[in-house]
Design goal:
By secondary structure, the chain is of the alpha+beta class. It has helices spanning 7-21, 28-42, 97-109; strands at residues 59-67, 73-74, 76-78, 83-85, 87-90, 114-115, 125-130, 138-147. Strands 1, 2, 5, 6, 7 and 8 form a six-stranded mixed sheet that branches. Strands 3-4 form a two-stranded antiparallel sheet. A hairpin with a 7-residue loop joins β7 (125-130) and β8. α1 (7-21) runs antiparallel to α2 (28-42). The longest helix is centred in the first third of the chain and has 15 residues, at 7-21. The chain is globular. The mean pLDDT is 85.
Length: 149
């Protein structure tokens, strides 16, 4: 594992900030969410979950909006959140959030993640939200678009 203060971790933090800054917000709410996420990242707080369910709180999660060839959206019933959500998972230490999408697509859907035209391997949306239910945590989410067969 790379220490949060290492040069590798610092460059990953800068790369993540650049990707989030490249997102064009759709509205003022998304603009405010992105600004909050950027401040969190720039502040040097730990980004990756190191202990279940909420260490640290908040931590980084990658979701991907998965569309099949008929452009149908796949959502999964997330047991802990009690919500229908896109597929995804926690970003592991040293892992690029797009690599999380690739890993989670293979684990959850047993297929390869394929970047789509909207954003390729870059996120198109970012938010930070409190999860619902018992043991709720703050999830900082980067959202990608992917195809699956």
């Amino acid at each position: 594992m790379v220490a949060e203060g290492s040069s590798k971790a610092a460059s990953a933090r800068v790369r993540l900030m650049e990707r989030i800054q490249a997102i064009t917000p759709w509205d003022r709410t998304e603009e405010e969410q992105a600004a909050g996420v950027l401040a969190w990242i720039a502040g040097g707080a730990p980004l990756y979950r190191t202990g279940k369910p909420d260490v640290p709180d908040p931590h980084l999660v990658s979701y991907f909006v998965a569309l099949n060839p008929d452009e149908e959206l796949l959502l999964v019933a997330h047991r802990q959140a009690g919500l229908w959500l896109p597929s995804g998972g926690h970003v592991e230490p040293e892992e690029d959030p797009w690599d999380t999408v690739v890993r989670e697509c293979q684990e959850e859907l047993h297929t390869a993640a394929v970047p789509r035209a909207v954003s390729g391997d870059r996120p198109f949306f970012v938010t930070s939200a409190q999860t619902r239910g018992e043991g709720s945590v703050t999830s900082t989410d980067v959202v990608y678009e992917s195809s699956f067969e």
